[in-house]
Structure formats: C-alpha cells, structure tokens
Amino acid sequence: MTGQKRLLVVYYSRSGGTERMAEAVIRGAQDDAIESVEVIVRSALEASPADVLQADGIILGTPENFGYMSGAMKLFFETIYYPCIDHTQGLPYGLFIRAGNDGQGALTSMSRIITGLSWREVVEPVIISGEFDDTCLDGCTDLGMLLAAGLDTGIY
Ligand SMILES: Cc1cc2nc3c(=O)[nH]c(=O)nc-3n(C[C@H](O)[C@H](O)[C@H](O)COP(=O)(O)O)c2cc1C
C-alpha cells in the first residue's frame, strides 16, 4: 500500500482541441487498474501554488499560440514558479500540446521553464498537430495512465 497520491492536471483550451486531449489524459489517469491516485483538474487560469505543492505528479496541457505556450499556461508558471521552486524538485511530469503546426515552440518554451523548476520528465510529450486526429487521443490516454500508474506503484 503506497497511500493516496495526487495527480494534478492543468490545462488551457480556447477552441476545444486541448480540452479533448485533457479528457483523454484524465480518462487514462482514472483507469480502473489504478487504485490510489486522486486526479485533480485545474484550468491554467486558476491553478494555485498550493495545488502544485500538494501534487505528487503533474500533467500540463496547452495549445501552441504565436509559437509559444498559451498565455494562460505562461500565467500558470508565473503564478507558481517562485512559491514552488524550492519545494517541488523532482516532481514527475508529462506534457500534451495541441498545435496547428508542429508544437515545438510550445514544447521548447515549457521545457525551458520546467528545467528551471527541476521537475522530472517521466513520459514522452504528446503533440497533436495539424488536423485534429482522434486516433492520437490514445497517446493522451496512455500519458495519463502511465503517470498515474507510476505514482500508484511508487515508481516515481
Ligand atoms: C491566436 C492564435 C495563434 C496561434 N498560433 C499558433 C502557432 O504559433 N503555432 C501553431 O502550431 N498553432 C497556432 N495556433 C493554432 C492553435 O494551436 C490551434 O488552433 C489549437 O487547436 C488551439 O487549441 P485549443 O483548441 O485547445 O484552443 C494559433 C491559434 C490562435 C488562435
């Protein structure tokens, strides 16, 4: 028995693409096989430092806008960075991105900030680019399930 763990999912979506990805991530994280992980979902606009400080793992999702993460996700990092930087080192994390092009601008911009936080990437990022492809949602479900299963079994 590893005790109850908390997996925080923080995302922003304006036109629904990233939200569909988030729903798949959450579905995976709440798989029946996972016994002791509580999934907490927050908008990037409302997530607080306390949400992050209480989390055992975190998954972040954003669209790529203007070659960068969304403004909402940037606000999230601005909100939590200094309250969390000395207390969340090694926090296991995963990312998902919805983009019209390749999503690399969002990925690079988030990764740079997360490097500053010293969080630990434990699953590959999932990017759905171009036309929305429902089959790629399986990758989102896997992302949620992998991170939750790692917390559940005490691997992370
Ligand atoms: C203002 C704006 C800027 C955008 N800039 C980019 C961009 O730089 N690169 C890209 O790949 N997609 C860009 N897109 C496309 C969005 O990433 C895409 O529409 C995505 O589906 C939005 O996610 P959402 O449906 O979760 O809101 C942009 C969209 C908007 C509205």
Task: Summarize the structure in words.
With 156 residues, the protein is α/β, with parallel strands linked by helices. It has a single domain (5-152), classed as Flavodoxin domain (Rossmann fold, 3-Layer(aba) Sandwich). Helices cover 40% and strands 25% of the residues. The protein is built from 5 helices and 7 strands, in the order E-H-E-H-E-E-H-E-H-E-E-H. The chain has helices at 17-29, 49-53, 71-84, 104-117, 137-152; strands spanning 5-11, 37-43, 57-65, 68-69, 92-99, 120-121, 126-129. Strands 1, 2, 3, 4, 5, 6 and 7 form a 7-stranded mixed beta sheet that branches. Helix 1 (17-29) packs parallel to helix 5 (137-152). The chain is globular and about 40 Å long. It starts with a strand and ends with a helix. The structure holds flavin mononucleotide (FMN). Flavin mononucleotide binds next to helix 1, strand 3 and strand 5. Flavin mononucleotide is lined by residues 13-19, 63-67, 98-101, 103, 105.
Task: Please tag this protein with its features.
156 residues; alpha/beta; Rossmann fold; seven-stranded mixed sheet; globular
Task: Give the SSE layout.
Layout: E1 5-11, H1 17-29, E2 37-43, H2 49-53, E3 57-65, E4 68-69, H3 71-84, E5 92-99, H4 104-117, E6 120-121, E7 126-129, H5 137-152
Helix pairs in contact: 1-5
Bound molecules: flavin mononucleotide.
